[in-house]
């Protein structure tokens, strides 16, 4: 599984699009008598006063295996490299990406981006390249809205930077790559999406819905499982009211906006469940999650993508994660400080789990036994055991000052990857 996420500058950085993170193919339940691989959760924290930290937590016993230093203003992470063996962290505060190995002794490497880049999101569906979308103005892109930098995962260096968007219309905020190292789709401003070739060196086209439905306000983007479509959330407002808000479907064969699903409301986060092939979309204005059948997209139909259910959840839903075994999905609610647990077949709400303050990110892990919730407001990680849907552990974030030993202000957890 691979996350592709929409990000913005803190504090609203992760209230956006994602495709579910993790690694591996379909769900594989434990087999008796066989040694199972170890699984880990990589929790990215943002430090308001200095270098951020990434904590590695062992799934089997909820223990912190190690904590590694990252750069300043860490905002996003992605796993890439040979055999998915490297973690890359985007640091908006010092225009860098931190890399360290997941399979050998960690030795963090700082990869410098162009000065002023201010990276906000990462994407990679190939082992050889990681792409950063940058929201700042650089010497090489003085009039653009931002840029995309390409990192060679073997050389651990930036090999090219491509300008995208126009500064007159806002800054880039999100990036997605089609499966198997395909084309890149970058929300380059408030009004358009840049399509780059798989190498990240050329802007192939710029997408907008057209004059008949403008303006639009794309906020997050993700690829379908087969790469035939890209789903874009639109939160356009005219006079304070929804205007064409919903999920736009782009056909990747010609990079044209084909149709709109679920007009109205205020969709602000989506994630692709790669096991059941569903798209989950949260809506804060109605406190709901819409579940779309992403395996049955036909832009000639009305609707072009069937809605399987609309589920009432807690206040201010900010994220969704589905268990790889296909039994349940979990919704983090930032307003009510809890997680709604939903049966993935009947769409019945099973229970609500109280977590810490201000949950901002949620993620499951490959064995479907744990769900992790990043609580920004209380600077902790809530771990939910899925067998009984109760809290199995609460883990504090690292201190902002690494020399502090008591009563320490803590860093803010912002993202989680499991592997």
Describe this structure in words.
0% of the residues lie in helices and 47% in strands. By secondary structure, the chain is mainly β. It has a 4-stranded antiparallel sheet, with no helix packed on it. Strand 2 (51-58) and strand 3 form a beta hairpin. It is globular. The relative contact order is 0.14.
How is this structure best summarized?
The protein is mostly beta strands. The chain has strands at residues 40-46, 51-58, 64-72, 74-80, 86-91, 96-101, 109-112, 119-123, 129-134, 146-152, 157-164, 174-177, 184-187, 193-196, 203-207, 218-223, 229-234, 237-238, 241-242, 246-251, 256-261, 267-273, 278-283, 288-293, 307-312, 317-322, 328-333, 338-343, 349-354, 359-364, 370-375, 380-385, 390-396, 412-418.
Low-confidence stretches: 1-32, 211-215, 238-243
**How many E-type strands?**
34
Count of helical segments? 0
Largest sheet: 4 strands, antiparallel
Estimate what percentage of residues fall within beta strands.
over 45%
Overall geometry comes to: globular
**In angstroms, what is the radius of gyration?**
20 Å
Strand order of the largest sheet: 3-2-1-34
Question: What structural category arises from helix and sheet content?
Answer: mainly beta
Query: Kindly state the mean pLDDT as a whole number?
Result: 88
Helix content: under 10%
Q: Tell me the span between the first and last alpha carbons.
A: 9 Å
């Amino acid at each position: 599984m691979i996350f592709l996420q929409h990000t913005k500058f803190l504090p609203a950085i992760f209230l956006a699009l994602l495709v579910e993170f993790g690694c591996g193919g379909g769900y594989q339940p434990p087999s008796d008598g066989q040694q199972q691989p170890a699984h880990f959760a990589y929790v990215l924290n943002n430090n308001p006063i200095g270098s951020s930290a990434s904590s590695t937590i062992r799934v089997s016993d909820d223990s912190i295996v190690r904590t590694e230093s990252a750069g300043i203003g860490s905002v996003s992470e992605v796993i890439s490299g040979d055999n998915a063996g490297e973690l890359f962290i985007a640091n908006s505060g010092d225009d860098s990406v931190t890399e360290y190995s997941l399979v050998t002794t960690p030795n963090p490497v700082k990869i410098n981006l162009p000065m002023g880049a201010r990276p906000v999101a990462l994407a990679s569906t190939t082992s050889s390249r990681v792409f950063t979308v940058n929201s700042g103005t650089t010497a090489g892109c003085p009039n653009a809205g931002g840029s995309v930098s390409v990192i060679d995962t073997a050389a651990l260096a930036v090999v090219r930077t491509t300008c995208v968007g126009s500064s007159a219309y806002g800054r880039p905020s999100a990036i997605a790559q089609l499966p198997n190292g395909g084309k890149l789709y970058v929300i380059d401003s408030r009004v358009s999406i840049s399509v780059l070739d798989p190498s990240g060196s050329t802007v192939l086209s710029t997408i907008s819905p057209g004059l008949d439905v403008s303006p639009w306000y794309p906020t997050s983007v993700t690829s379908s499982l087969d790469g035939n479509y890209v789903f874009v959330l639109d939160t356009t407002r005219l006079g304070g009211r929804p205007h064409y808000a919903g999920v736009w479907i782009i056909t990747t064969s010609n990079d044209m906006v084909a149709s709109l699903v679920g007009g109205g409301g205020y969709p602000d986060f989506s994630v692709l469940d790669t096991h059941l092939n569903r798209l989950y979309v949260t809506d804060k204005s109605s406190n709901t999650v819409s579940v779309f059948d992403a395996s049955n997209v036909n832009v000639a139909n009305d609707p072009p993508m069937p809605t399987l259910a609309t589920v009432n959840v807690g206040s201010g839903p900010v994220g969704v994660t589905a268990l790889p075994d296909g039994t349940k999905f979990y919704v983090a609610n930032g307003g009510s400080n809890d997680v709604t647990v939903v049966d993935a077949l009947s769409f019945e709400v099973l229970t609500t789990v109280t977590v810490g303050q201000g949950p901002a990110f949620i993620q499951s892990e490959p064995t479907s036994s744990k769900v992790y919730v990043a609580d920004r407001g209380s600077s902790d990680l809530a771990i939910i055991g899925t067998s009984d849907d109760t809290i199995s552990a609460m883990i504090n974030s690292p201190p902002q000052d690494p020399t502090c030993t008591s009563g320490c202000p803590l860093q803010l957890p912002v993202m989680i990857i499991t592997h």
